[in-house]
Amino acid sequence: MTRPLIQNVLAAQPPEVVRAEGVWLWDAEGNRYLDGCSGAVVSAIGHSHPHVVRAIAAQAARVTYAHRGAFTNAAAEEVAARLCELTGFAGAWLVGSGSEAVEAAMQFALQYHQERGESERTVFLSARKGYHGNTLGALSASGHARRAAVSGIALEIPALPTGDALRDHGDRTEEEYAQAMLDEARAVIAAQEDRLAAVLIEPVGGATLGASTHPAGYLAGLTELCREAGALFIADEVLSGMGRTGTVLACEQESVAPDIVAMGKGLGSGYAPVAATLVSQKVLTAIAEGTGVVLGGHTYAGNPLTAATALAVLEVLAEENVIERGREAAVMVRDALEALAREHPLILEVRGRGMLLALELDAEGRAQGDAVREFASICMKHGLILYPATGGFVDAVIVSPPLTITSVEIAQLVQMLGSALIELAGAREEPQPAPA
Fold it and tell me: Secretion signal: which residues (predicted)?
């Protein structure tokens, strides 16, 4: 018997959330949970921040929606200006979700080449184990189990190597590992000749590989390969952006300057569905000197309510030094996770960057995904929410609490995590019933 509200797992009956504050959530039964993964790596500034709540209420009392084709609004103008100031991009295209931001990035890339008389450039390349969203174009660019939902109509895009040091690094140096990936990428790009529109890459892995990082030098080298091929470089920073990895954009840490960036999640920080596509001056100039019209649009994009919400989040990030605080807290979290790894052999690896971290677990021969789903369920019993990787490649859980987490709350997170690891180890030691 199905229920009116469709869940991913049709028979699932998750607890009903009724309240949230800071890093904590409460269900209808009065149970409290520490948000150890910021939902889906969304809540950068924590829940129910009073400044954001007041901004939402104030904007809702004035105007919540007006179509961008008829009006602009002060909040949207200010959000775009602040994003450009923070990142150095020339323009920001506001949308409603990370998937939309990726779709818009791909459309900007196609239009850039069309405006320049290179309409044959329609091919995109992405990492074989990346994830870019759940719309058709974004999912086509994803090497993710969800591709099965669009089997037969998805574009064949994923073809580039993916940073996965636990499995692929071997005894090579970091430089040798990066060079091997670049050699493979060069061959794939060369095969496209003059048809390549853009390469789309996550600077830090998310849903598929759980906070995986590329070897140093790979992203910079890949950017140069794009330049040589006349293609654009698109960074998917939906998950890694807005300070999650310690800087506004993760690409900053690689000295990489993308042509286009998709960002979301932390921009609305869970208070409203809002995302953005950041566009370089090169791309905007091509459009301005051509048709002068962006061939895209979304009904709710840049509406006054979500724009005012994003603006309030940006104000909190700036006024409360949230990114700097997050960098400091991330060091404490990582140190604690590495200490747990030394104590618990079930943890194969601690990885990630900034406050985008993950634990890879020993699956002990079980079907991929079973171990992390079991572990996330045990953590939930202990009052800790973690985010299992879902791409079909690894057994990892993302540990990525709000950047505002305190040292006391970090200690609570680690205690819950340790208790869950002990329970998981105990469950594995229990004799299993013989098959019938």
Answer: none
Cα separation, 353 vs 197, whole angstroms = 29
CATH-assigned architecture of domain 17-48+321-429: Alpha-Beta Complex (3.90)
Q: For domain 50-319, which CATH number applies: 3.40.640.10, 3.30.460.10, 3.30.460.80, 3.30.70.990?
A: 3.40.640.10
**Which helix (H) or strand (E) element contains residue 198?**
strand 196-201
Average pLDDT for residues 304-313, to the nearest whole number? Answer: 98
pLDDT (tens digit per residue) in 31-63: 999 999 999 999 999 999 999 999 999 999 999
Percentage of residues in the chain having pLDDT higher than 90: 86
DSSP character string of 13-69: -PPPEEEEEBTEEEETTS-EEEETTHHHHT-TT-B--HHHHHHHHHHHHH-S---TT
* Global pTM exceeds 0.90: yes
List Cβ<8 Å contacts ≥24 apart for 184-192. 184/160, 185/160, 185/161, 185/221, 185/222, 185/225, 186/225, 188/125, 188/159, 188/160, 189/125, 189/225, 189/226, 189/229, 189/231, 190/229, 192/123, 192/125, 192/229
- Mean predicted lDDT score pLDDT of the chain: 95
Q: What is the CA radius of gyration of the chain?
A: 22
